[in-house]
Amino acid sequence: MAGALLALLLRHHGAGRVVLVENHPLSLPESPPFTPSFDARSTALSAGTLSVLGDLGLADAIREHAAAIDTVHVSRQSRLGITRISAHEEGVDQLGAVVENRWLGFVLLGALFADKSIQVRAPETLSSICRVEGGYQVSLAGGEVLETPLLVAADGARSKTREWLGISAREHDTGHDALIANVSLAAGHEGIAYERFLNDGPMALLPLPDQRMALVWTGPREQVDRWVALENSEVLAQLQARCPAGAPRLSSIGERQRYPLVLTEACAQVVPYGVVVGNAAHTLHPVAGQGFNLAVRDLLALAQTVGGNSDPGSLVTLQAYAQKREKDQAMISQASRWVPELFRLQHPLFAHSRQLGLVAMDILPGLRSGFAKRAMGL
Ligand SMILES: Cc1cc2nc3c(=O)[nH]c(=O)nc-3n(C[C@H](O)[C@H](O)[C@H](O)COP(=O)(O)OP(=O)(O)OC[C@H]3O[C@@H](n4cnc5c(N)ncnc54)[C@H](O)[C@@H]3O)c2cc1C
């Protein structure tokens, strides 16, 4: 997701030639692809991300199979205090949209293959890199050798390229997994995204087209083992019991998949002639659907900084990019790490402040609006 979008943004911002290396087969898609990045998940795209996709001329295609988020409903299981953030109150058409990753991939790859200055090497993998004057020499497993003034590691949380660039990463295994599935509803969801803090961990139900919602249900691994083993009817009953009052009736559930929640943070974002982006730079807790949206803000800033630059890999240029992105990255990474922890703590003091937090958000429009603007990436 990050690599494909960056290639398009780099071209949009003046880069002459981009080579994208992906170790799974990619071709001009006739139907939505299925690769580790464009998989069974859905992604909540913020208003900011939709605007970036709009600048590339892709927002309408995305919207063909996306559901608008008109309201975000945040609540805590068996506690007082909810807050609602609405597009109407924020003065925007929609807070964001939810799209299945496979459709996002279909649209991004279509645009990628339409641009002859983006050369795709897939299936292909990097076998080694070597620092040369003014950049990197990159050897591919198939025997090709490329030279580049800027090498971007967009190869996921366990990035080999990041390691080769000499950038270490901090890992925090939360001991939790995310269970994801699509659920069908007995009636419409009215564009409401539910964010529910349960005793086990947060759960999100995001609106999808055709009276469906995308479920992200997180909990300790042994608990997720039990959810995976349940019959569909049992898992639906357990889910419904955890939904807030007024949430739609869930009628069926599709295939369930799980993702380990291991949070990763690169210790540096840039080195001379090298940069890390997407999951290779920061892998976040999916609690508020911020991982890709944060990556998109990075990718846009990077493309704007290096796109038309004759020396895109110079450390001064790359440090300017890293500095520009530092505050947003730190804030979103910290929040995505600590919010789930805070909601899990059982001490009455924390329970009280959580409740106060949600109640305060509900009654103080300024606080709610500030939070909404951050979440929308505006
Ligand atoms: C359950 C869940 C729900 C989420 N929901 C949201 C959401 O609603 N909103 C949001 O903003 N974010 C969300 N995220 C985060 C989002 O999924 C990530 O930000 C996104 O996957 C980042 O993608 P990426 O391209 O950086 O990395 P990846 O998706 O890991 O892609 C890395 C790519 O590199 C390729 N690769 C790996 N090694 C090599 C190699 N050696 N050579 C060549 N290619 C290689 C892989 O095949 C893959 O295609 C969610 C995450 C999870 C786990």
Automatic annotation (TrEMBL):
Q: Which InterPro entries match?
A: FAD-bd (IPR002938), FAD/NAD-bd_sf (IPR036188), UbiH/COQ6 (IPR010971), UbiH/COQ6_monooxygenase (IPR051205)
Q: Where is the FAD-binding domain?
A: 2-325
The pathway is: Cofactor biosynthesis; ubiquinone biosynthesis
The reply on keyword Flavoprotein is yes
GO BP field: ubiquinone biosynthetic process
Q: Which GO terms describe its molecular function?
A: 2-octaprenyl-6-methoxyphenol hydroxylase activity; FAD binding
**Residues making up the signal peptide according to the UniProt record:** none
Q: Which UniProt keywords apply?
A: FAD, Flavoprotein, Monooxygenase, Oxidoreductase
Cofactor(s) the protein needs: FAD
Family affiliation: Belongs to the UbiH/COQ6 family.
Q: What is this protein called?
A: Oxygenase
Native source species: Alcanivorax borkumensis (strain ATCC 700651 / DSM 11573 / NCIMB 13689 / SK2)
